[in-house]
Amino acid sequence: MVTKWVPDLESRKGPLYVRIADSAEADIKTGKLAAETKLPPQRDLAYDLGVTIGTITRAYALLRERGLVSGEVGRGTYVQPGLAANENRTSDPITLNFGGTRAMSPPPGKLRFDTTAAVDVGQSAAIGKLMMEIATSQPGEIASYTRVLSPDWQEAGRRWLSTANWSPEPRSIVPHLGVHAAITAIIAAVSSPGDRIVSEHLTYAQVTRSAVLTGRQVVLVDSDADGIIPEDFERVCAREHPKAVFTIPSGQNPTLATIPESRRREIADIARKHNVWLIEDYIYGSMIQDDVPLFAEIAPDRTFHVNGLSKSVAAGVRGAWVSCPAHFSQRVRVTQKLITGGLPFVLAELAARLVLSGTADQIRTKSLREIEAREAAARRIFAGCDFRSHPHMPFLWLKLPEPWLSGTFKQAAFNEGVLIDDEDEFKAGRGERIYHRVRIGFSEGVSRAAIEDGMATLRRLLDDGPSAYVGVG
């Protein structure tokens, strides 16, 4: 729709084009200029205000830089959707370009099915007790910077990263401020701006957005129900000469794919052939507890194996560890220091004590038990639908029936008070592929009854179809 909009210039200061842009931004955020509203043609607005077209051009360009409008030659300039104040969006271009599809500050009163953080099973009491012990026993460390890598932190990492058939060397381990931060540090350690990093089309795309933000290029590799396809990985390596590949080999987010052993060995052989580093995110794998050999077992010379506490113990602790190939732990540690400013003593010590005391294992057991119950409810409520799930995974990957679109279903769920992730949240780059899927997480720290009510709401939307949904704006 087109509007006869005139900016309020009298109450603003600064150059004229800035005042025009500021007025437009205020009207967008209050809803006076609604989503998808077409702004007046530049010539018309220039005439109405008695200014040059150049002034209007600069004002519209500033609005585009702020991420508030989009425009095409011959089509006009339109207000971007989802920018009203009550949706808690930001006009910061960095956030719009790299932040993904979720609002930085989620709207209040919504049920959050867009998170897979650890289930609340009462872990705060145990964590609070450990934090009090740390504050009492090591006040000097809390007051200062972290300068020493404690052997206890490495031993905790060894225990948490170990599986039934594999255990890393403690000296290879570097503690980190969460799995995401660890992977970002690894990418920075093994590559330079302009280098290529391989990713699946659908993945935990916050990693690839971080890589792009730091100047790396992301190249995409095909995958199927069993994960990365070795033949396409070979093609990408031969053509693009990447430095590393980011993979979630067990319980892939969001598809839940697990790469079988034979395929992992093929991928490892290709990585050796083309001198590509393997970054293995195992945060969901340790919850599934499958017996497929790790990349770290198959190719220890070129695998960075990463795991942490966020999904099964406590996301707020931000505890994680990476086991590095020989001679790389110091490089990764230095890179982490340069990127983040260093690891906070309190969180590193807390994560280590959680693991070494056995508390983390106890919490994980309780979390998995609760996830099992919620996943069973999901299978019951979504019976007859096309989805993938696992008893120990805190989300399901749902195929939408005709004629639902991913983004449309996400908006319909939002209008019903439920936040979910559409497929765009997991796209590592631009592509022509459309999956018509959404991810529904169910680890939100509310009652199981509330979780089931939210699932029932989504099932009703699926059954009613888009004809029962009227979009807003």
Structural class estimated from helices and strands: alpha/beta
Work out the radius of gyration: 25 Å
The amount of beta strand, in percent, is 5-15%
CATH superfamily of the largest domain: Type I PLP-dependent aspartate aminotransferase-like (Major domain)
Describe the structure.
The protein has 473 residues and is an alpha/beta fold. The chain folds into 3 domains: 16-89, Winged helix-like DNA-binding domain superfamily/Winged helix DNA-binding domain (Arc Repressor Mutant, subunit A, Orthogonal Bundle); 111-116 and 361-468, Aspartate Aminotransferase, domain 1 (Alpha-Beta Complex); 139-357, Type I PLP-dependent aspartate aminotransferase-like (Major domain) (Aspartate Aminotransferase, domain 2), CATH 3.40.640. The protein is 42% helix and 14% strand. It is built from 18 helices and 17 strands. The chain has helices spanning 16-30, 42-49, 53-65, 93-98, 123-137, 139-143, 151-161, 179-190, 205-213, 230-240, 261-273, 285-288, 295-298, 329-340, 345-356, 359-381, 406-415, 448-464, and strands at residues 69-72, 76-79, 111-112, 173-177, 196-200, 217-221, 223-224, 227-228, 244-247, 277-281, 303-308, 319-323, 386-388, 395-399, 418-419, 421-422, 437-441. The protein has a 7-stranded mixed β-sheet, sandwiched between helices. A 4-stranded antiparallel β-sheet has the order 13-14-17-16. Strand 1 and strand 2 (76-79) form a beta hairpin. Helix 2 crosses helix 3 and helix 10 (230-240) packs parallel to helix 11 (261-273).
In short:
This protein is an alpha/beta fold.
